[in-house]
Write a structure and sequence with these properties.
It is a single chain. Helix content is 31%, strand content 29%. The chain has twelve helices and 28 strands. It has helices at residues 145-162, 177-200, 213-221, 234-247, 264-267, 270-276, 314-336, 352-365, 395-399, 415-428, 444-453, 455-465; strands at residues 3-9, 13-20, 23-31, 41-50, 55-58, 66-69, 75-76, 82-83, 99-106, 115-117, 122-123, 127-130, 136-138, 165-168, 205-208, 226-231, 255-257, 281-283, 289-294, 298-304, 340-345, 373-378, 383-388, 400-402, 411-413, 437-442, 468-473, 482-487. The strands form seven sheets. Strands 4, 5, 6, 9, 10 and 15 form a six-stranded antiparallel beta sheet that branches. The chain has a six-stranded mixed beta sheet with strand order 18-19-20-21-23-22, covered by helices on one side. A five-stranded mixed beta sheet has the order 3-2-1-16-17. Strand 4 (41-50) and strand 5 (55-58) form a beta hairpin. Helix 7 packs parallel to helix 8 (352-365). The longest helix has 24 residues, at 177-200. The chain is globular, with a radius of gyration of 25 Å. The two termini are 47 Å apart.
């Protein structure tokens, strides 16, 4: 399946879209104001040990303390030398004041701080180094026995050098030993630098920063299916070419710089598809639909026949609707980055073989998902319980804030998101020399937000637009709404 990576980078945020046959299947958004990214490594003291929860809180020098479960402790260092034994409780491992090196395994979600682990992992293009966890492993997606045996032999040789744990990623399939060795040496060098920095650093805080999102997606997503990488920032284009040149010079030819007019996401029809992700109802081609509701602890998906009446008997109509919904559910879970406990309310099916076929189809559709999923089964009423690994906020929670108009019962775009939409709209008119002035009518709260938080970016947007830009307050506008008046 042909895939394209589209990278839209601005001073305030980077967005990466993964397209498969021109369909948006994954979306990554990282804003420069975001600080606690998954993969970042920190040094900090234990501030509180909670025996009742078998966990502890770590001060990593950020606004929110990090949460460390006993299950995420393997080996700790500095003033604590320990390897956790089975069923050992938190109080026998940690004390308040112990200094740990921890890595964010799950970013802040809602009001919760980040979740961390002492099992540091450093991912490369082909390998993952696990210096705190010995042993070797090979991606389950590499199924060919001869390839697994070859990789095992290579990893055993590398493991013998330092005794650091190693995992062969899916991308390592078919890669020569010398290339894997190069990746290994790079990761070991990075780890050694980190150890030195940790010893010198006397204060709590960041020790290692994970790659920026554009490079991270290339590292984690790039496969033989990707036939194009398009980026609209020259510096990022250069960085991608340099990064790929270190591992696979042939992949450099995939990187293209987009120098055309307008937003690259509009060129590839991504903006329209992103806007659709805020809708709870998703229509199926047959006329049926699914409704997606995000709660605090779970995601509930409801399947409905809608306009679809079928052309056979009632049981077949229900079965076909459920079967069609399966593909869209798997697609939406991946695209919207929905995780945790997921309850799917399929339309009730009387026939056992229909239920079994729907479950089999769901499991098959989820194989494309890089996130770990587990389908429990289907109840007699048609409910399916499943889980999907969640390491960051869903799309909606990432780009929206709790709605002030409905006391938290729904969502609106955040002030920041609306502000950046305005900046992108201004950018559209930069090449139109007939326009001399643009008046932007906004809700007063958005104007206040811009002047208090985004003044520098506003000035930058004005320069990029090459026009006089005036912001005018209009209390009648909902805070997501704005109007552009183009004056010749």
């Amino acid at each position: 399946m042909a895939s394209t990576l589209v990278i839209n980078e601005r001073e305030y945020e980077t967005r990466v879209a993964v397209l498969e046959n021109n369909d948006l299947v994954e979306l990554y958004i990282e804003r420069n104001s975001d600080s606690m990214s998954v993969g970042n490594i920190y040094k900090g003291p234990v501030t509180k040990v909670l025996p009742g929860m078998d966990s502890a809180f770590i001060d990593i020098g950020q606004d929110r303390a990090a949460f460390l479960s006993v299950s995420d402790i393997y080996r700790v260092s500095d003033d604590v030398e320990f390897e956790r034994k089975k069923n050992q409780n938190i109080s026998s491992i940690l004390k308040k004041g112990n200094v740990l090196l921890v890595q964010i395994s799950k970013g802040p979600i809602g009001t919760k701080g980040p979740r961390v682990t002492t099992n540091i992992t450093l991912p490369g293009r082909y390998l993952v180094l696990t210096p705190m966890m010995p042993g070797i492993g090979i991606s389950r997606k590499i199924e060919q026995r001869s390839e697994r045996d070859k990789l095992k032999k290579i990893l055993e040789g590398l493991y013998g050098i330092h005794g650091y744990g190693l995992i062969a990623r899916t991308a390592s399939e078919g890669v020569p030993a010398k290339v894997l060795k190069k990746d290994y040496d790079f990761l070991v060098g990075k780890w050694n630098e980190m150890v030195k920095k940790k010893k010198k650093q006397t204060h709590k805080g960041l020790v290692h920063t994970e790659m920026e999102v554009s490079l991270r997606v290339i590292r984690d997503v790039l496969t033989s299916d990707v036939n194009k990488i398009v980026v609209d920032n020259q510096d990022t284009h250069r960085d991608l070419v340099k990064y790929l040149g270190q591992y696979d010079p042939r992949s450099k030819r995939l990187v293209e710089f987009y120098g055309g007019e307008g937003n690259i996401f509009e060129k590839y029809d991504v903006e329209r598809k992103i806007a659709m992700l805020l809708e709870k109802k998703v229509w199926l081609k047959s006329g049926g639909y699914i409704v997606i509701d995000q709660a605090e602890a779970a995601v509930v998906i409801d399947v409905n026949t809608g306009k679809y009446v079928g052309n056979k008997n009632f049981a077949e109509t229900i079965f076909n609707t459920n079967l069609e919904a399966v593909k869209d559910i798997a697609y939406q879970l991946r695209l919207r980055n929905l995780g945790g406990v997921i309850i799917i309310d399929f339309i009730d099916m009387d026939k056992k073989d229909h239920r079994e076929k729907v479950i089999a189809a769901l499991k098959d559709a989820l194989k494309k998902d890089r996130a770990k999923t587990n389908v429990i089964g289907m109840s007699e009423l048609g409910f399916v319980e499943m889980t999907r690994k969640r390491v960051r906020d869903s799309f909606v929670k990432n780009v929206c804030s709790v709605c002030p108009y409905c006391a938290g019962r729904g969502y609106n775009k955040s002030y920041k998101t609306v502000t950046y939409e305005v900046f992108r709209d201004l950018e559209k008119h930069s090449s139109n020399n007939d326009i001399k002035k643009i008046v932007v009518c906004l809700n007063p709260v958005i104007i206040d937000y811009i002047y208090q938080n985004e003044k520098k970016l506003l000035e930058h947007a004005k320069k990029q637009c090459k026009k006089e830009v005036v912001l005018e307050a209009d209390k009648t506008l909902h805070h997501e709404q704005y109007k552009l008046s183009l004056i010749n």
